[in-house]
Design goal:
Helix content is 53%, strand content 13%. The chain has 210 residues and is an alpha/beta fold. InterPro entries: CheY-like_superfamily (IPR011006), NreC/VraR/RcsB-like_REC (IPR058245), Sig_transdc_resp-reg_C-effctor (IPR016032), Sig_transdc_resp-reg_receiver (IPR001789), Tscrpt_reg_LuxR_C (IPR000792), WalR-like (IPR039420).
Length: 210
Amino acid sequence: MSAMPIRLLVVDDHPLLREGIAAVLDAHPDILLVGEAADGEQAVQRFAELRPDVTLMDLQMPGLNGTEAIRAIRARFADACIAVLTTYSGDARALQAVQAGARGYLLKSMLRKELVTAIQSLAAGKRYFPEPIASELCNAIAEDSLSPREVQIIEHAAQGLGNADIAARLAIREDTVKGHMRSIMTKLKARNRTHAVSIALQRGIIDGWS
């Protein structure tokens, strides 16, 4: 008697990506795509309905984002096996997802090579973090992280606001903003303010605006 197939739920707001995963899995009868969701709210609902063995979760989606959806699912189902599925390799995003309960991290650019191996590893109870992601996670844990206030300030700086405008928005002194900016640049090893914003975006500390 053959083993039961691995039951998979895919959460991503791009239909073509979901179709691409389904196409790859056609050649692998040991993995069964049992459901799809297009946003975080649907993901929580579909997970409760289907109780899949493995869930692949996009991070950036409208409404409830991937990290929040992971946290919500894990709060109700502590044994949920969820891996992040994302375009971004920013270490802050990876760390936030792991802290929320993710057991794996898959870049969309790696799907053709690693999708099946990742699903099989996760279903077997293992964690799955490709080497570049594992290294970034170690760096994120080892380095000083930005405080919530520093994240607020770099977010406003990314919108093009100067120190005086940031101070007015946050109801703090301009000198306080300058002090935080110095701390941010030290922690991020940035040459200047623009470089700090660039690093924060690259590492996923803040999100970009379209």
